[in-house]
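Worked Example 4.2. Read the sequence first, then its structure tokens.
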Amino acid sequence: MTPTPHTVLVVSPHADDVAAFCGGTIAKFADEGWKVVLVRVTDDCRDSVGLTVEETARRNADELRVAARILGVAEIEELGFETDRLADVPLCDLRERLVYQLRKHRPYAVFGFDPEGLYEGNQDHVRVAQATEEAFWVAAFDLHHPEHVAEGLAPFSVCERWYFARQLAHPNRVEDVSATMPRRVDALCAHRTMLTNLIQGYRLQLQTWGRRVAWLDRAMTGDPRELVATFLQGQAKEVAARNGLPHGTLAEEFRLSRFGGLEELFQGLSEPLPGAPPAPLREELDKVPEAPVRPPEKVARIFPCDIDRKVRLMGHHFLCLGAFDELKDSALFQAGYPDLLARLQAKPDLEVEAVYGYDLFCYQCGYWSEDEGRCTTGWRDKLSKDAAVLERLGIATGQVLTLAEVRRRLAERVGPEGLEHFCGRGEWFCDFKLMGRCQRAYERLQKEAR
């Protein structure tokens, strides 16, 4: 196994939250070579039964170190906020401490409570989730916390956000933790002081009900492992079954977020940074759309041998010729028409013939369906636009002009105002119009024609 150079940071409001909510996955990351940094936000000074505040804080800190070793945590950062009082702490103060940790450790991935999680009554969990969510943004802004920059901590942004919760509203990632579940159980059991307090809370609730559970009574003074294992295993089996994993699998569930609504765009346009370590593969996310596979003979039919001298276009694609110099520098145009750009040279003496029907642009376009053999955005609308454009330009089907003459007519008879009419709205709307490149090109055409 080749160790990964990446860091994962876990933001944990309390000492036991890591083991309780994501311990199997964190142990799995550690086994895969990740450096795991745990940020404990509070001091857990009141999570005990029958101890002083000082002794409680000491024991919980000691037990956290034991649990962290079990899970493979390499480093613990203590923020030291008073437990169960985060609702009284200004959110910006808490956020600043988390921004500092993000800039200091520069993690590839961060685990934490989901601000969209359901049924969360613990305000420490709620506030840490809110502060962490804001810290993701603020850490990237160079005008926030210049004192960090003075320490040598540059702005930074996390790639992956792994959210957990008592109940996730929108889970989208499942991790098989069958192999690491025993360590998750061991780690949670290591938090004996906090477990005792948790068990006591349930015992008091049962007393109010007028009942008792002997199992809980025994766990207060004996070994809690059976109780912990039963709970965690049952929870993990339910997650696995809900997500269709094989019987006997134990799983943990998350909401994994990277780029939100920009995920698909970045998948299609991103390229590796020179010298950057390889990113971990996320099967559900890293699915780059496959370009249509065309046999060489079909490509030859699409691109005629005289394309260096003559190009045949349907009417509305004459408009694209007026903005071709701008469009060819567009990342989206380059991604959509790579074969065309590699072959078509927009020289002034290039001959342009008006044709009725599909053309070179169509066969390269993302709206072209190989299966259906047609444009999927509406053939009738395209024909009406073809006719309107050719009429405006004074060009008949089959007529041949030079590119220089086509551009002169586009400048004189279409211009920015006509471009708005043909491409700006309604049934003739074009995706590229809104990006501004075509307007700039047509304004330049008009200036050159004067």
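Now turn to a second chain, presented in exactly the same format:
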Amino acid sequence: MTTELTPHSARRRGARPFATPGLVRFLAAIALLVAVAAPVAGVAYAVNGATQAHASVRVQVQVTDRAALQIPLGPTPDRERPVALQQQGGASPGTVRLDLPNSRTPSWLEAPLQTVTLRAWDSTVAEQLLSRADATVLWLCVGLGAWLLRRLLLSIADADPFQPGNARRIAEIAALVVVAGSASQLLPGLAGAMVLDRLGLGPSSPVAPLQAAIGLAPILAALVLLALAEAFRRGSELARDTEGLV
């Protein structure tokens, strides 16, 4: 007994497309929205900070000498009585221990001191802009990346994913990932240093600017994107060679 396959049954057993052109174009429309909104939001956030000059500015710093810091215990007949922020037993290095009351078993909170928020009044325009620069750069990179992604999605919707410009677009997205990651690591430290300098808190103060360091995550993500860009570049070359044989 033999079974004869009809054209309809063969078509049903064929591989289904991963995404329809309509879905890809919908994603491209979302990318366009992000490409327009993200830079506007980033610039607006920075401008809003510039208008708050002479108010308080918030920057990230790290605690270098916890014993030199003081916290008020509460009002006294004359004035608030401050005490030194000492290291308590059982806390992990670089943290301050906060005991939890009414706990059935010994429990406490550990607040890290490597990154704390410094709030200082009478800020300058430059301090406000620099304190928000990392977020501004991030939103600008997101907007540019979304624009590049939109062009890539449209080429996929047109069944031409290996057009010559796509490899360049993916490589540019990789560069944007590195820029955004570097800004999030470097700019907060510069903002903290600027505020500490205005306050006269030098090397002998109990706080210091964050150390500049670039994480591995943006670099690894960029390497993956560069590998994908190379794959698209080779695919573009093969597509051109195939067209030459037709």
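Notes for the reader: Confidence is low (pLDDT under 50) at residues 7-15. Helices lie at 7-13, 21-50, 125-131, 133-157, 164-199, 216-245.
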